[in-house]
């Protein structure tokens, strides 16, 4: 399945929190749900849960997720 890379604007505090949760094997539900919603907004259908990849170093900080999406099927 193809992957769609999603970047969500964040702040440094939230980014640190998300990274800490990820390292502890937990999930930051709000950002995961936002990544899924962004996939839908772009017209694709998520095939799996978003996977946290990391953060960017720029300003604003962005949370990076990879989301498997279904291939477009034209019938």
Supply database-style keywords.
three-stranded antiparallel sheet, 75 residues, single chain, alpha+beta
Structural overview:
The radius of gyration is 13 Å and the shape is globular. It contains two helices and three strands; from the N terminus they run E-H-H-E-E. The chain has one domain (3-68). It has a three-stranded antiparallel beta sheet, covered by helices on one side. The two termini are 19 Å apart. It has 75 residues and is α+β, with helices and mostly antiparallel strands.
Task: Outline the fold blueprint.
Elements: E1 3-9, H1 12-23, H2 29-41, E2 51-55, E3 62-68
Antiparallel strand pairs: 1-3, 2-3
Helix content: 25-40%
Overall morphology: globular
Extended strand count: 3
Mean pLDDT score = 94
Order of the strands making up the biggest sheet: 1-3-2
Straight-line N-to-C gap: 19 Å
**So how many helices?**
2
Give the helix/strand class. alpha+beta
Gyration radius, rounded: 13 Å
Query: Approximately how much beta-strand content do the residues carry?
Result: 25-35%
- H-E order: EHHEE
- Number of domain units: 1
Uncertain stretches of 5 or more adjacent residues = none
